[in-house]
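re: that complex we talked abt at group meeting.

here r the seqs, copy pasted straight from the sheet so there may be weird spacing, ignore it
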Amino acid sequence: MRGWKFSRRDIIKGSAALAASAYAAPIRAQAPASEAVTPALVEAAKKEGKVVWYTSVDLPVAEKIAKAFEARYPGVAPRVERSGAERVFQRIGQEYGSRIYAADVVNSSDAAHFIVWKRDGLLAPYVPEDVAKHYPADHKDADGMFATWRAWLSVIGYNTDLVKREDAPKSFADLLDPKWTGKIVKAHPGYSGTILTATFQMARDLGWEYFEKLAKQKIMQVQSSADPPKKLSLGERAVMADGNEYNMFLLKESGRPVEIVYPTEGSPLIIGPNGIFKNAPNPNAARLFQSWMFTIEAQQMAIEIGGLRSFHALAKEKPGRKPLKEIKLMKDDAAAVEKQGEDIKARYTQLFRV
Amino acid sequence: MAALTQAAAGHAPARPARLDLSRPIIFTFAAILCVLIVLPLSWLFYYGFVDRAGNFTLGNFRQLVSDRAFVDPLITTFILATTASIVCCAVAAPIGWLVARTDMPVRGFVRLLVTASFVTPPFLGAIAWELLAAPNSGLLNRAFRAVTGAPQDEYLFNIYSFPGLIFVISCYTFPYVFVLVANSLDRIPGDLEDASSILGGKTWTTARRITIPLALPALLAGALVAFLQSMTLFGSPAILALPAGFHTMTTKIWSLFQYPPKPELAAAASLPLLVLTVVLLRAEHMVLGRRGYSVLGGKGAEPRLVRLKFLRWPALAVCLFVLLNPVFLPYGALLNATFSKVATQIVTPQNFTFHNIEFVFFELSATKLALKNTFILGAATATIGTLIALVISYVTARKAVTGHRALGFLATAPVAIPGIVLGVGLFLSYTRPPFILYGTLWILLIAFVTISLPVAYQQLQSAIRAVHSDLEDASRILGATRLQALSHITAPLLRTSVIATWCFVFVGVMRELSAAIMLFTSETKVISVLIFDLNESGDLAAISVLGLFMLIVTFATVMLANRVPGFGGGIRLRNH
Amino acid sequence: MALVELRGLSKHYGSLAAVDNISLKVAHGLLVCLLGPSGCGKTTTLRLIAGFVEPSGGQIHVGDRIVSSPERTLPPEQRNMSMIFQSYALWPHMTVAENVAYGLTLRKIDRETIAKKLSAILSTTKLQAFADRYPGELSGGQQQRVALARALIVEPETLLLDEPLSNLDANLREEMRFEVRRLHDTYRYTTVYVTHDQSEAMTTADLIAVMNGGKIEQAGSPEEIYDRPRSEFVARFIGSSNVVKGKNLDQSRISFAGAALRCDGATLVAGGETAISIRQHDIRLLSTAPQSEENVVPAVVVRQVFMGGTRDYMVEAKDGTQLRVLAPAEQNIETGAPVWLHLPPERCRALMG
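got the structure back, here u go
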């Protein structure tokens, strides 16, 4: 890893202490200075007219954010290119391998990807004003390549029409109860960065035996971590073994019969950084977009309508949602995910047969 | 008379010998076809037999036959294709017979419905069946529980299962068997049956002893085609098999391109599919001769209709019941999901919404590009494919140049290349110099042109054959040049077939998923891939909107093609 | 003018010679029939003349031009010919008038002239009433006349007909034979007519070329071909003659079934073997032995059929050769009875080869 070290601090006490180990020591002498949005940048962005955002955030959320950006900067149309984080990663690899530079700004739910991209020199340094001013050091890259645009948890959930509150699982271990056989929906680490990250943390903390047993529960295997909440909402399965907390918030708040369970073993924390690619076809629009994405306006919007969590100092959590600091979390370790990701996927495929 | 003779005496200005003109044609088109077909297959073979370092190895194949992760999908695929093929025959043969040979009411309408299931993209059908028969949320299972009062976790159907997958695949594969069987029954001249009757055979005896045996080769060929279709299908297994926890060969090949990509294994895994397809097509050819590909030709004596008497209406009821599955129920489910707030809840005034339509067409930023790409590719593929097919089929039908057979063979060869295999081959070919086309619409265009070439070629060749060469010669001898003859005589007579071919290629492109899934990039996404993406994140309502839109465009195009007279129903569309 | 001459013309497809070194000269204004069974090369010859096929060897001259040779072939459109196809090749998307006028419009002739010529040819071919119909709406005979009109209106130097009557029913065919001849007499184009029907050739042609295996077996006037066939093939193909074979006895006689037959047409070489042909109606059937034994062959009646005007006998000579004899209807000899056949020497043609 070319001589950079990873912070591996104990992190249970709160967001500030959450060391996302994607954010390592700087490789340059000095971090680039932050840049404000200038009228010249806006003009240049408008000339480019569009910005392509590769992301793994759930599509309706992504499109709302994109629309809000376009409303703020008319004339710069974002195009959302949504897929599972692992697919996004593969796609960018494939595209760059063929010298196709389509991505401007990329957001991944697998923070380990940014380690790879930074190492391969694919990212362009750019520090938006808000990141410099309002973001904690362990949620921005020391070299100014990326910062945590969003954070959320992978949680257990259930459909309240199908499961009574008192019967609902309280922990990951509860999911192994035979009464849930054939009733569980689960997303795939080969597709979803959220699930890869969560699988890593759970395998580390609970051991692979947990997954071996879970694999015998006749789970319904879906791809995206946004899908299990939707399957719960439709009533297709009673319980989800993993999936996006933010989709659960959104569904619950729109009146769908779903409920979140923060497992007693701890909930995997997922960090979703945003960064600009060096070969971005629309570099100015990319900067404008990146800048705006970290403004309190955008961050608060991601919280309100996206159900996401923010590390922006001024961001306020939405009432009615359990504050992050009250939740027992599993430790994030992007660097380890980067190293073990392939193994995890292979092992998972072996256990779950897909 | 003398006034009209050419003034030139002696040697009139002789035009260059025909060979000079034809050589460039054959070379150009042979070159085009080679690039289209031979190049990707060569890379496929190359990759299959080398390791990462580029040394020759059989290791890829060794892994293929020893690793359970490959052996299981192989076995699964085999069982799947066999079962689906049997189911298709069991369903299609009786319906084909009822439609072609009995006095069942509204036979034309039943044919129309089969055509509808024919042109429905199978992946769309699979998603619609998710809406219908997901064990808990599926509309049918809800209805079942509501009617019987069965407990919450009981269900009638589970589409996320091996039988479920077989069922859905059969829904959209049986039309292939139907077309072959019905067309062959149409072709059996009535006098063969009359000959049996005159010897004392009763209606049913005649049907059993004469009609059915005559249709058997078509049924057997249909079984092979159904096997092939089921084996090479990508969309339906990707949508239904993965949640159920198993792979088929096509989904396995596709998964090999996930990070980190293993192209050499994908190439190795593609080759058995390719070989099996070639073998099966040879078998079909032997069973059926050339007829399998050709559009239904002119009928001989009017076929005799068996009188079903009091069974007429029950027979129709059976047909309609069968067609519930590929047509009425899925379309209904998609329509329902389009206007419902919750995809699997029946639309009521309370949960009626236009939001899904709004979302797809005004909020989803990928829609516009995907539609644009799809229409550009559809139109370009249809135009280029039809043009290439037109020239090649003219050359082969008129035997205009030596070597026309080779051209004809190359034009039909892509039939033997499953879409996903072609996708892998093209990916390997065009992500490297000298042709870096990956990431452009060109690579998709190449894939789609290659895929649609056989259909277009078969259609146009039979159309050109129907335009007797005497018609052109008559024009030539009266003083028209070859080009004048083509434009005055051949072109107007072929126009209808050309339009129809164009339409069917266009429709074929819209529903193509298996090659596109290997070749798209964010800038070159098409509707089918967008739908597939949406399925992965569970956005069923958005899929329903896009799917219905696709169906509307498809049916409009098919109707346009069918309005064109003289175009039979025996179109072979690829089904991926 | 439009003299058509084939000089050593050949067409090979691979190792197969469809047309094998044929030469034929058709004087201006004559109607020549290429007559032969299917596969004899007659249609290929016609298509060579039309320019649809390039020769492998030899030349075709029309007037003073060489229109075809292996080196250069004038395309069909520059030959000022017309052709009537077996399939008629009427263009289904054009009306009768459009079909017929097509050749004139290609020649950029003014509308008025076209209208005039069109009306004239339509009336000659009795098609005025159908001018606006499409070919699909016409009967076979009417289609045939449209094809004729379309070919004639351009006033070609040479008219080519490829089995033009084979798709008509028997009555119409008979009628159209005379129609073709009548039109030919009216316009006197040099005409090459391909048919496999010998009576069609007899009624229409000035000159018949009997083809077999890519070669011209015999060319001559209908009378010549009929009366003096030069080969067994021609003898059998034209008017289905009896052909008998025997050893040469001297310069003019052969031995056949124990009898000596004097024949005509060639000087025989002693010791050789010769086939002679004799027409069915030229044999006289006698129920008692005649006094003169010259050219009389004893035989037995194998079967006989009453044909109305005649009686058709099959008789068998001593050596087992069967001969057909057409006798007057009133001459009724029962099966199994002995008969004597008189073969008049002047009707016995010695064949070559």
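couple things i noticed - DSSP finds eight helices and 20 strands in chain C. Chain C has a mean pLDDT of 90.
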